[in-house]
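sorry for the late reply, my laptop died twice this morning and i had to redo everyting from scratch. anyway the thing you sent over, i finally got around to it. pasting the sequence first so we're on the same page, its 394 residues, then the predicted structure underneath. double check i copied it right bc i was rushing
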Amino acid sequence: MIETILDYLVDRTWVGEVFLIVLATASVRFVAKKFFDRLAIKLESTRNLYDDGLLDAARKPLGLGIWIVGISWAAEIAGGNAQADIFQYVEPAREVGVIWLLVWFALRFVRFIEKNVSDAGYRENPVDETTASAVGKLIRIAVIVTGILTVMQMLGFSITSLLAFGGIGGFAIGLAAQDLLANFFGALMIFLDKPFKVGDWIRSPDRNIEGTVEEIGWRLTRIRTFDQRPLYVPNSVFTSLAVENPSRMLNRRINETIGVRYDDIDLLPEIINDVETMLKTHPAIDTSRTLMVNFVEFGASSLDFFIYTFTKTTVWTEFHQIKQDVLFKIAAIIAGHGAEIAFPTQTLLVSPEPSATLNREPSAVSGNEPSAASGNEPSAASGNEPSADSQQKP
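ok and here's the structure:
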């Protein structure tokens, strides 16, 4: 049995060569993995964007590339002895595999740079995420197109004819995909003009759009509304839409009107002065901006004065804490002067009638008391009372 196997191997030495090549490939792959593991540990002590990017991008493609080269080499040796037609495709497959690995490496490297170029841990001046995403997407498209054209040229296709067809076909596709192109140029406008970026809070007075920008794609922009629903907006909408970006505000405004009673009109000047002094000394109020405290109106049930000022913070939660503190201090100032904050009231004044009118006696003119002319009392002329001429004595 052993002699038979040895005779087979002697007659077919290529089997041993294939075995040795596969074994050598596995050994090289193992050594490469250990090398990258040690290199990664060494590079953990430093924070270099491009070193970390190259290491992260190269690990998987290089490991797979070792296997592709080793197995294709072994396949060529086996094909030279087997004389099978399928082995004639080994070399083109290896070349396509190498091109694909280079494209994969480039895409991984670009993605790593895009993800971390806006990280302050890698750069002193981080690039904003929107710009990094736009440039990264353009580079990835260029890498993929270049890889496809290279593979097609390698397989024998005519690139010149393909490009000529692409010019005519591109015109037809452009007519058929106007909305898609409109969204693409809308995304390009966002990347160039930068009306907002990922992480900004935006809203539109023209549409029911408000929330935080999560992603800006080539066709859609994903916005997370405040009730945590995802909102997908085609980029072409932003070319004709007014967009407000509250994330870029410099301050937040406090604009409130407060009323006191009419009984406290003599105290109002002192209240206004104390409120203005309080605002000017408040640590969270930006005194470099407009600050106004003025009496503005005789209201229906109050004397109204308003406060108009700006906070230093733009954070929504902090702003409401500051506003609450300011309003409580205004209430304390009003109470400290012995005044009160007014609330809607109505006063009804009833004018008393003269006592003579309320307690008047019936008069002869009123008709309530019978008179001689009224006919209610029998008179001599009425005929109801017997007169001297008509009376009969018993």
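The CA atoms of residues 17 and 74 lie 8 Å apart.
thats about all i looked at so far, will dig more tmrw
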